[in-house]
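Memo to structure team: turn this sequence into C-alpha cells by end of day. - J.P.
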Amino acid sequence: MIQSDVQAQQRRLGPWWLAVLAPLAVLGPSVALTFGLRDDYSILREVHEQPGQVLAFCAAQGRLVYGFLLEQSFAYIDSVDGLVYARLLGALLTGLAGASVARTLARCFHWNTLDAVGVGALLTLLPAPQVISSWAITWPHAFAGLLGVTAFALAERSLTREGRPWAFMLLAIAVLIAGTLTYQSNALLYLVPLAAGWIRAEPRRGWRWLSAHLGLVATALASSYVITVVLFRALGFTISDRVAIDWDVPGKLAWFMANPLPEAAALFVLRDSMSRTEPWYAVAQYVTAAAVLTALVTTAGVRDTLRRATGWIVILGAAYAVSFVAIERWAAYRTLWPLTGVILVAAWLGGRRWIVWWATGFGRRVFEHPSDRIWAGRLLTAVVLAAAASSASRNVRELIAKPQAQEWARMRDIAADFDPARGGRVFIVLPRPADTTAPVRHLDEFGSLSADCDWAALEMFKLALRTEHAATPNPAARLAWQSGYAIPAGTQVARVIAFRDDRRVSSEVSPPMEAPRRNTSQPGARPVFR
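Reply from structure team:
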C-alpha cells in the first residue's frame, strides 16, 4: 500500500520535473564550455581583489540582495573555468521557476497537466532564460523570477482563504520584496500565472481579485524602494543615476510599442540589429497576436470580451512596469521575461482553442475516436516544445557560447606569449557591432563579443594573464594597454589582439593565427577551486 502511494506521488510529481530539466538538458551542453560574458570577467576580479565593491554597485541600483548573492557565489570561483557552475545554477533556477508556474496553473486554475507543463517548459526556453543561463552573473535573475512565482502562489492561497490568510499574505509580500531587491524586472514573473488565471476567469476571480494581486505587487515595489532608501542612508551607499523616473510618458510608450513589445510578441524568434531574421520575426508577431486575440475573445458577448481584454492589457503593462518607469531605454531580452511570459500564456490558450476548433471540425473526419484527437493534441504539443528547444539550443550555442569560448581561447593564446617580466604595450583592435559574423546580433546578448568594448577586453586580458602566469604575483604590472578601431600610425606595440573582421589574434613577430591553439569545444579541464 505504501509502495503504491509512493508510485502515485511520483506520477503526480513527474511531469513538473520536465520543466525543471528543460533548460539544463537543452542549454547545459553549450553553457558548459569555458567562457565568460562581459561583466563576468570584471566581477570575477573585483570580488577577489575589491570585496564589497560589487555589493555597493548593485545596492546603488536598488538590488542589494543581487549584490550579496554575487559576492557570496563568486567568492568560491577563482577562474573563468569555474563560471560554468554559476551558469548551470541559473539554468536550474530557471527550470524551477518554470516548474513552479506549471504547478501553480494546475493547482490554482485547474489546467490539465499537458497544458501546464507545456507552458512551464516553454517559459524556460524563451530568449530571456537563454541569456540568463548563459551569463554567469545573471543567475540571481532566475532566483528573482522563482521568488516572484512563489509569492503569487502564497498570495493566491491567502485570497482563496486556504490556511491562514493574513500569514500567507504577509509572507507573499516578504518573498516578493526579496525578489524585487534581487532583480526588479524578473520578480514580476508573479504576473504570469496571474494572466493565466484572469483569462480563464471564474466567477470568484473578477476585478476585486485582480486588484488585490496588483495591489500586492505595488506594495512590494513601494516597500522595496523605501527599504533601499533607508539602507542607502544607513550603510552610506550612493544612489545610482540609473535609479530615476522617466517622466516622458508619451515618448516611453512609443518606445515600448516599437521595441520591447514586438520583441516579446515574437516569442522565440530573435530580433536582429540588421533585420536578418525577417520575415520570420514579423510573422511570429502576427501569429502571436492572432493567438492572443483568440484567447481574449469570449462567447459570452462583447462586454465580457472587453472585460477580459482590458484586464489582460493591465497585466501586460504591469509586467514591464519597472522598466517602463525607469529612465533607461534598453530593451534587453533579460528584462523581458515577465512581459513575454504574459504573452506566452495568452498565445498558448489561443492556440489550444484553435486545436479544439480543428478537433471538432476537420479533425473529427480524420480522427474518428476521441482518444485519437487527444493523442494528436499531445503530438502537436511535443512538436512545439521540440521546435522551441531546438531554437534555444542553437541560439545559445552559435550566438553566445562558441563565439565567447573562441574569444577567451584567443585571449589566453596571446597572454601565454606575453612576458610579464619584460611587459610591453598591447593594442586591441576593437570589433565594431556591424563587423560581427554571427547570423544574429542583438545588443550585448546574442551574437556579440565581449571584447567589443575596451573595459571588458582589458578585464579579459588581465584574467588571461593570471591564468597563464599563475606563478607571477602580478603579471599585469608591466602591461601598457591601448585599444581602438585601428592602430594609430607610428604606434609601437609588442602585441596586437585583433577581433575585427576575421577575429584573428596576431603579433608583430609571428604570423596571424586562423584559430586559437586551444580546443574550445570542450569544458576546461583546469582545477576551479584552490
